[in-house]
Amino acid sequence: GKTTLFNAITGCIPPSEGRIIFRARDGRCHNIERLRPDRINALGIARTFQNIRLFGNLTALENVKIGMHARTNTSLFGAIFRPPWVRQEEREIELAALRYLEFCGLSQYADELASKLPYGLQRRLEIARALATAPTLLLLDEPAAGMNPAESQELMLLIRQILDRGITVFLIEHDMRVVMNISDWIYVLDHGEIIAEGGPSDVQNDPKVVEAYLGAESGAGHP
Predict the structure, then answer these.
(1) Dihedral of the CA atoms 213, 218, 222, 223 (nearest 10)?
(2) For residue 104, which phi and psi values (nearest 5 degrees)?
(3) Which residue, 121, 139, 182, 211, could crosslink 47 as a Cys pair with Cβ 3.0–4.6 Å?
């Protein structure tokens, strides 16, 4: 039910019941459960996916620029006739996209096709594209999946840097080391039901969590 929750929050699927209320960057609360994904993104919610969804035939820079276009003012007229203000905006988009690549440690791969990047870098590129939409809430769906320990460590550092920017991160993750090291508050789901919530140390030692996720190898609840 974890990815299903993200899909409902971001408008990919409509919830069968209940309400989803989000406090947007303007300080107002919005009911978002029936909004289109683009409208939800405009309010300040961005996400990555459990299965990477980059444009593989585009460069890393072009992928991030696509995220930037969520915040541009170009109209159909401007896209066709490209007046000076549109060309200026495009230059600003490229510079901003390069900054997002630099922030995510991808500057040297700007001109590489996304499909040619190693798996761990593709994960980081998807985060860079999501950040380019200027979110206040970033949903990360198993960002450490398939990463080796060194890549997971780099990911944790990146997420901390994102948090330092004042962006809230809502994370789905099975890597307990990542979860315990970067989380302020944790919800634990088992077959779609919340079985525990709280700070990392409280959740880590909860008997139901140990039984469902950590297993016998964790001893007293320490993974």
Answers:
(1) -70
(2) -95, 10
(3) 139
